[in-house]
Amino acid sequence: MTSPVIGTPWKKLDKPVSEESLEGVDKYWRTANYLSIGQIYLRSNPLMKEPFTREDVKYRLVGHWGTTPGLNFLMGHINRLIADHQQNTVFIMGPGHGGPAGTSQSYLDGTYSEYYPNITKDEAGLQKFFRQFSYPGGIPSHFAPETPGSIHEGGELGYALSHAYGAIMNNPSLFVPAVVGDGEAETGPLATGWQSNKLVNPRTDGIVLPILHLNGYKIANPSILSRIPDEELHEFFEGMGYEPYEFVAGFDDEDHMSIHRRFAELLETVFDEICDIKAMAQTDDMARPTYPMIIFRTPKGWTCPKYIDGKKTEGSWRAHQVPLASARDTEAHFQVLKGWLESYKPEELFDDKGAVRPEVTAFMPKGELRIGQNPNANGGRIREDLKLPNLEDYKVSEVEKFGHGWGQLEATRRLGDYTRDIIKMNPDSFRIFGPDETASNRLQAAYEVTNKQWDNGYLSEQTDEHMAVTGQVIEQLSEHQMEGFLEGYLLTGRHGIWSSYESFVHVIDSMLNQHAKWLEATVREIPWRKPIASMNMLVTSHVWRQDHNGFSHQDPGVTSLLLNKTFNNDHVTGIYFPADANLLLAVAEKAFKSTNMINAIIAGKQPAATWVSLDEARAELEKGAATWDWASNAKNNDEVQVVLAAAGDVPTQEIMAASEKLKAIGIKFKVVNVVDLLKLQGVKENDEALTDAEFEDIFTADKPVLFAYHSYAHDIRSLIFDRPNHDNFNVHGYEEQGSTTTPYDMVRVNEMDRYELTAEALRMVDADKYADEIAKLEQFRQDAFQFAVDKGYDHPDYSEWVYSDVNTDHQGGISATAATAGDNE
C-alpha cells in the first residue's frame, strides 16, 4: 500500500500569493500567539472581559514561549501553502517546547474541537482550552500525541529529521516541512539527520523541507549555529547537500504584512524548486538533487515585551520559558501581561461569543488537507494488515524427523528468508532498517527482491553490491536514524523491522523510551489515534556470542529498560527470547501482526540447534512458556527434584547440556523454556501473563528452580517477586564479565556454562550428597578453560556436544567454522 494521495500534489502556483491570503496569515499568527499566551497564563476570563484581574492567571505558570511565536508564524504560512497548492502535508515540530503552537494550530483548523467536543468554539470552550494546558488533569506541554496532526512530540530533541524522512519513504505525495530548533541543532542525532537526503529518492518518496529555526538561544545560552558567520553556516549546509535560503525577520520595525509578503515569496520559490525536483525525477534517472532548506532567523520570544523589569526579554534567553513569572503575584507584571495580550488586538480576532472570526481561518485548508486531520498524521487510519507468507514454508522441518536438538542453523538467516518474502508481498509498505548490519545479522536474503536505497553515488557493481536509488532496505551507521526512520514510517501507516547489535541498542534507549510513552498515552486515553504497526526490533550479535568484539560489545540491558514500560496493563512492549529458528519464526509472525507495541526479539545469528517443531513453537508462544516434556525425565511435579528453566538461545543450549549430565547422575528434573518474558510478570501488573495456577503448574509449587537467563538476573527477580515459589528461584544471568574469547569461556566467566549449571543444580538438590560430583565439575571447568588457553579453541566436550535425542546420522546444518568464516562482525 501507499498512503493516500490527498489533493493535487506538487503543483506550482500560477499567480502571486493574494493579499487576502496574507492578511489571513497575519490574523492566524496573531490569533495563534494570543492562544499560546493564554494557554501558558490564563485559567479564566480568556478574552480579558472586565473585570480582568490577577485571579484569572494560573497559580503555576508552566510552558514555554520563546520558540512558539516563530512556530506560529511558520504554521500560518504552511497552512497557506497547503490551501493554495492542495498539497498533502505533515508538519514536524522539532523544538521541544513549542507545544502551545501545536495545540493552537489544531484549535484554529477545527480538528481540536472535533476530537475533543468539550473544547467548544466559544468563550466557555476557550477557557477550557486555556486551563487544560500543563494543568492537573489536562494536557502536556509538548506537541504530544494528544494533539491532532502530531507525529513527533519533541519531548526529546534530535529526531525531527529522522522522523520526517521516515514519513516520506514510499509516500511520494507527502510534503514534510520539518522545523529544527536551536537546541536540537546541537544534538548528535540531528547532526546525523542532515545526511538523510542521501537515502531517499524523489521519484518514489516524498520531500522533506528542513527549516532551521534560529532564534539565538537555548534555555540560558546562545546557540552555536546562530552565532557562526553566515558564510560558514551556508557552506555547512551546502556541504550537506542542501541549497540554503535565509530569511531574517523581527529585528527591526518592519511591518508585519511586509514580513509575511517576503516569506510567502520565499516559500513559493522554495516550493517551485521542490516541484521541479519532483517533475524531473519522474522523467530522468537524475543525479541526487540539491534539496532546498530554509534558515529562519527571528528573535526568541518574538512579539513579547522587549524589556521586562528593565532587562532585555524579546531576543534573549529570558524569553525561553515564562517571561512574566510573577504575573499573578505582582500587579506590575500583571499589567505587562495584559498589555502584551492586548497587543494582538483580540477584538479583531474573536467575536462577542468567544469564537474565532471566520476571516481568521478563511485562507486555511479544508477537510483532510488540514494539518490536524491529515491521515498520514494518524497512520492507523490508513494502515493495512501485512500480507504474510505461509510460515510453514520456512520452518525447520528436520527436527520433526531427526529429533529435538537437530542441526546447526543460523536462526536469523531463516528469519531473513521470511522477511524477504514479506517485502515481495508488500513491496511499498514494509522496510528493513539497520546500521550497516543487515547482512551481518543474516537478513541479506532481502537483496534477492530489493536493494539498499542509496542516492549518493556509485562505483561498480562488484564494489557497491545490492545498492540502488530505490529499495526497501535502508542502512546508515546510526542507530538513531534507523529507529527514527522506522518510527516515522510506522506513524504514517506502514510496517517494518530494524536490527542492531545488542550492545548498540543502548544508543537509542531514550528513543525507545519516548516511543513507548507515545504508545502508552495512545493506548490509555486517545481512542481517535488508530493503532499503528508495532516497532519490531531484532536484537542480535548478542552478549553470549560477541567473541569477535569483546567486553565493550557485551551488554544485554535493553531488556531492563523495556521492563520499565510494562506496568498498568498497557501492553506496549514485548520481550521475546526465541531459543531456535522455529521459535524465532513464530515470534516474528506474532510481532508483524501486532499493533501499538515495541517488540524486542533477542536472537543469536550463530549456528545453533533447533529444539522444537513449528507447531510446538507456536503452542509455546501462545502461553509464553512451556514444559519440554520430551527433555524432562520427571513424570510429574511431585517427582521433580529441580526445575531447569531457560530464556534465550545460549542459556537454553547450556541448560539442555546440563540436563543430560544430571540425567546421567540420576537427578529427576523438568525442563522449562520461556519465550515471552512478560508472561512471567505478576497478574496484578499484567493481565495477559500466566495465571498463578499456570505458573505453579510450570515451575512447581515448592521445588527449586534453576533459571538460566540471557540478560541480567534482576529482570527475572523483579518479574516473579509475587509469584508462587519465587523464593526457590536461583537465577543465573549475565554478570558483567567478558572479553574477546571463546564461546565456552564467555559462558564460564558468567557462571552460565553447562558444568556450573549442573553443579548448581546438584547443590540445590543436595550439596553434601553430590559433593564429589560437584568437585569434578568445578575441576573440569578449569581444565576446559586451560585447554582453550593452550589451544585457542574450546574443549571437544563443549564444542562437539550434540543432544542425545538427535539421530546423529542425520545431524545437518552448517558447522560453526563455516558459518563464521568471512563474517564481518
TrEMBL record:
Coiled-coil parts of chain: none
Cofactor: thiamine diphosphate
Record InterPro entries: Phosphoketolase (IPR023962), THDP-binding (IPR029061), Transketo_C/PFOR_II (IPR009014), Xul5P/Fru6P_PKetolase (IPR005593), Xul5P/Fru6P_PKetolase_C (IPR018969), Xul5P/Fru6P_PKetolase_CS (IPR019790), Xul5P/Fru6P_PKetolase_N (IPR018970), Xul5P/Fru6P_PKetolase_ThDP_BS (IPR019789)
Highest taxon listed in the record's lineage: Bacteria
Keywords, sorted A to Z: Lyase, Thiamine pyrophosphate
UniProt keyword Protein biosynthesis, yes or no: no
GO biological process: carbohydrate metabolic process
Xylulose 5-phosphate/Fructose 6-phosphate phosphoketolase C-terminal domain span: 605-802
GO molecular function list: aldehyde-lyase activity; magnesium ion binding
UniProt EC number: 4.1.2.-
Segments forming domain Xylulose 5-phosphate/Fructose 6-phosphate phosphoketolase N-terminal: 17-381
Enzyme class: lyase
Family from the record: Belongs to the XFP family.
Identification of the protein by name: Probable phosphoketolase
Organism: Bifidobacterium bohemicum DSM 22767
Lineage of producing organism: Bacteria, Bacillati, Actinomycetota, Actinomycetes, Bifidobacteriales
